[in-house]
Amino acid sequence: xxxxxxxxxxxxxxxxxxxxxxxxxxxxxxxxxxxxxxxxxxxxxxxxxxxxxxxxxxxxxxxxxxxxxxxxxxxxxxxxxxxxxxxxxxxxxxxxxxxxxxxxxxxxxxxxxxxxxxxxxxxxxxxxxxxxxxxxxxxxxxxxxxxxxxxxxxxxxxxxxxxxxxxxxxxxxxxxxxxxxxxxxxxxxxxxxxxxxxxxxxxxxxxxxxxxxxxxxxxxxxxxxxxxxxxxxxxxxxxxxxxxxxxxxxxxxxxxxxxxxxxxxxxxxxxxxxxxxxxxxxxxxxxxxxxxxxxxxxxxxxxxxxxxxxxxxxxxxxxxxxxxxxxxxxxxxxxxxxxxxxxxxxxxxxxxxxxxxxxxxxxxxxxxxxxxxxxxxxxxxxxxxxxxxxxxxxxxxxxxxxxxxxxxxxxxxxxxxxxxxxxxxxxxxxxxxxxxxxxxxxxxxxxxxxxxxxxxxxxxxxxxxxxxxx
Length: 470
Ligand SMILES: Cc1cc2nc3c(=O)[nH]c(=O)nc-3n(C[C@H](O)[C@H](O)[C@H](O)COP(=O)(O)OP(=O)(O)OC[C@H]3O[C@@H](n4cnc5c(N)ncnc54)[C@H](O)[C@@H]3O)c2cc1C
Prior knowledge:
Rossmann fold; 20 helices
């Protein structure tokens, strides 16, 4: 009887899972495994919020597999050793997985593929996570893109919607005896800081599908204008589901295509698909410039005089007590829910890297630990873009003014009031700059700003000019 192992990684779903589908077609029995080997992703082993998500997503996937006659066997790494044991235990002739694109994982997977093939196994990998893999788009000169618009024009022209591969109805499972319990992976926090997460998220494929349904039913038509408004819930909040592969971009693309019955629906869908394009672009950049989680993509920025690391200011930024309401609202939303609205991510990142002139890597690390959607490609690109040293970056002189950003994108202060309850009763005219009324600060206990926005902006621009002019 022919047996295969399907190695789940960040493709924690049954629908539109090409590795699972191919294994089921070619083999009579399959063993579904997840190998826990965070050290193999060093220095980017998953952070605390991601671990929380992973625990619940693994439990959800196991439940789905069991309903079809299978099960998810959890194994401890190292990955190659765990795979070899599993192969011996179930007599597998083949191993299947879906590809990931982070530098450390690419190197590991290539080595595993070589070794298993040398042992005579059939090893197959597939694309489940991207609309277009990093090598499928090249500039006219045959190199990687560094600018989003031509990248997206190229990729978009290649995209053809196709119906997702259905989830299997039944799985004939090859059982492995060596499984570990999810609790023993110790992914959940010891201190209960995750209380707010449960109210917002449902990790797993069912949660991803219900998020997508809600978005398509209620939000996509207003997405174009609403996506910049943190006071509204107009974005999809699919990012953690996409990161863990509980839903794939091809499934989303197909569902959007299915509802595009008229021009308005087509245009609304296209705006959303273009945002997915930024995710594709981030993966393209990380693949072709694997040093970027540590180094500036634009080497001219290497001379930039960052301020000395200021532990106290960084802590106040992390805790949401900078005295700048929209920054504090964002940082508290992040801490409570593991997620932050994209517009606010840009504002808090600009504040850290420009007003406080702290290195973007400090912010990227904090996000890495606290975001449920922490993703090496997207996070690196987001921080480098905002700091001004990345591809297609916001020019350095574009320092987000958190007051005008707040007034524009949170005009009634609804978002600030939700996350900074001290300011709940502040008048709308002061909600984004309460320091203009000292009695308001005294009455609410809300702190004065840790920096003067205008002076720190000027200082950042002067530092930039100095580094640029040598
Ligand atoms: C400093 C900074 C750090 C970031 N870190 C991450 C991160 O670690 N993980 C992450 O998934 N996103 C990151 N982003 C991108 C973006 O903020 C989130 O993807 C988005 O807020 C997720 O919410 P959503 O699913 O409701 O987005 P929607 O607006 O509904 O967009 C749909 C999907 O498109 C993708 N997407 C949208 N905008 C971007 C973007 N600018 N770059 C890349 N992909 C995008 C995401 O997968 C998202 O789920 C970061 C942005 C910044 C400025």
